[in-house]
């Protein structure tokens, strides 16, 4: 695989309203969901690793103990995922111009792995597609990679939308990577119970 100039942004700023407690901190395989996601990111070819926090940031920040992980606090987390994407993308401007793409992912997909992240990067380098998205449950979504040509559009997303809108807007520029288990995300206590029953 070519040397990567791809950053990864982990969105972990949500208030977990439906869960009733910060889902970022839910135990999963001996660590928290957030730690699992960070470890998958660190083990991938992506650098830098950026974590965007918002709601409960003070409580969650103590989970981010890995060196070389940049934590960004999104004070406007209540405006939705787009505000966190904006915070993450803007933080990349502190790095050199060598970052030519970014993977955007979330911390509530327990089956995320470094292998999936690397597949996105590999497809980006070998196929020269501007967007590489995960495909599951008859939809396209995160984790998804965007070339830097889309950074300004990502930073300008409307308040109530996420990266999926951008993917759908530019389908002719999207390469799809199958990730069937990407359909599993943890939003409610029932989701978490079902996950625990499978491990």
Automatic annotation (TrEMBL):
UniProt xrefs under CDD domains: GT_2_like_f
All residue ranges annotated as the MobA-like NTP transferase domain in the record: 9-172
Coiled-coil region list: none
Signal peptide range: none
Entry's Gene Ontology molecular function annotations: nucleotidyltransferase activity
Pfam families per the UniProt record, alphabetical: NTP_transf_3 (PF12804)
PANTHER family per the UniProt record, alphabetical: MOLYBDENUM COFACTOR CYTIDYLYLTRANSFERASE (PTHR43777:SF1)
Protein name, entry field: Nucleotidyltransferase family protein
Lineage: Bacteria, Bacillati, Cyanobacteriota, Cyanophyceae, Nostocales
